[in-house]
Amino acid sequence: MRAKRATTAGEYSVALDADPKEYDRLIRSLTVNVTKFFRNWDTYTVVEKTVVPELWDRNEPETRIWSAGCSSGEEPYSIGILMHKHAAERRETARLETVKILGTDIDADCIGEAERAFYADTALGETPPALRQQYFPQIAGLHGMLPEVRRLASFECNDLLAYEPPLQDVHLILCRNVIIYFEREAQDALFSAFHRALAPGGFLVLGKVETLLGDARALFTPVNARERIFRKA
Prior knowledge:
Blueprint: H1 9-18, H2 21-30, H3 41-58, E1 63-68, H4 74-89, E2 99-105, H5 108-116, E3 118-119, H6 129-135, E4 138-139, E5 142-144, H7 147-150, E6 153-157, E7 170-175, H8 184-197, E8 198-206, E9 220-224, E10 229-232
Helix pairs in contact: 3-4
């Protein structure tokens, strides 16, 4: 409001109607885009040891993964690295063609950053050195994403509060440190949308300070409660 020199919410509403680009500026101001590769490493350790092998062993025609609220792409690329690492260890990298990772966010600027896939040192602050060396070639002072992992992911703008999942029969949904910003009614609706989107036995991974409440607890069963990893009931 100060930037538009509006003294009341009504004046700012008029400014929004007069300038469509102001909506984009408002969204950028409101959204929280704090993220890193492998943020909360303990969670990724459990995902690597428990979730990734099961997804791989299912040998589905297509393994669908959705990073909901992906910001600038660190989360979907992190799970892509784990899938690539597992495939390499199994000497089955050809099967990576069946892995489809979709990252969605309401912030179009963040989606653009994710598609460019170049990151500063700060984004890799929680990435183990071995993974940094293997998966992040340095280009012009930035850390690029290994092309073999980059190809696994696609990105699009999506409003989670529309409650219409962009994918169906998803095998893994990561939505970490997002729902804490929503009111309870919106959280319930979003968990219901996740349940509809997941394939039978699919996984849901939340942030460390998030949990299932109310009716949502009947939709999912805990796989690792401490790391907020659940399975579709």
